[in-house]
Amino acid sequence: MVEKKIEPTERQRALLEAEDWRYFAIDYVGTGLGSIATTEKVSLSVGRIVSFGLPSAPALFLDLAAAAHRRRTAIDLNKEFVVHTAPQGVFPENQTGLFDFLQEMSAEIVMSFSAIEAFANEAIPKDFPFSVTKRDGSTELLSGVDLQRQVSLDEKIAVVLPSALGIKSPRGKRPWENYRKLKAIRDRLVHLKMIDRKASGPEDQTIWGSLIENRNQNFALVALSIIGVFSEALQNRRWYKLADGAVTRP
């Protein structure tokens, strides 16, 4: 016998619509709403023990990335760079606007990557076994936390998640290529090289020049796009259904 689905009331719909989109899980329960919550021991003046709805880490990071994207796209770099008389060249008369841009774009990139990583670790079934080849040539089955820690994000996206969810690998497709570009820039940001900390000429592009060069890319949408490849893991994720509107809002 198929259990009849009980439709939510108008009151329940209104209650859910009013809730923040970044919940990990919230839905209709009984005559109201229910969510996954956490109880924490923290040093707040209102009490040592507090409870609150569990947030979705990918949603938090996507929101941070999107906010940084909006702030840095509001900066007109063409106005920041001033053409001076020869042989002086083209450079800002004041560095504040440029530095604000670089700061916000760095945040956008790091948070976009963090959103993907958080989602991948969340979406891999905890009991899913994955075989890895060790340096000595032997193989080892990993699952749970060990899999999350020891397998690279590239492999999680290209191999582990597709295998776990029974779908084709995104490798070679546009979301994958955009993700790889994001990862390359993120890796340069968090592992700065000597070239990024010294005077250089146009023949050697620093990470800062790379950020300016990639200014037309929306990395928050890049993250949302590669996450969206794994729709099988997102069917009951309210945060994902609302993420597009949150990420693309002006």
Folded structure, characterized:
By secondary structure, the chain is α+β, with helices and mostly antiparallel strands. The chain folds into two domains: about 1-55, no CATH class; about 55-250, no CATH class. The chain is built from ten helices and eight strands. The chain has helices spanning about 10-20, 55-75, 75-80, 95-125, 145-150, 155-165, 175-190, 205-215, 220-230, 240-250; strands at about 25-30, 30-35, 35-45, 45-55, 80-85, 90, 130-135, 140. A hairpin with a 6-residue loop joins β5 (about 80-85) and β6. The model has no long low-confidence stretch (mean pLDDT about 95).
Q: What's the β-strand tally?
A: 8
Terminal CA distance: 48 Å
Can you write the helix and strand succession as a string? HEEEEHHEEHEEHHHHHH
How much helix is in the residues? 40-55%
Q: Describe the global form.
A: globular
Helix-strand category? alpha+beta
Low confidence ranges: none
Strand order of the largest sheet: 1-2
**Average pLDDT taken over every residue:** 93
Main beta sheet: 2 strands, antiparallel
Tally of domains: 2
**Cα-atom Rg, whole angstroms?**
22 Å
User: Proportion of β residues?
Assistant: 5-15%
Number of separate helices = 10
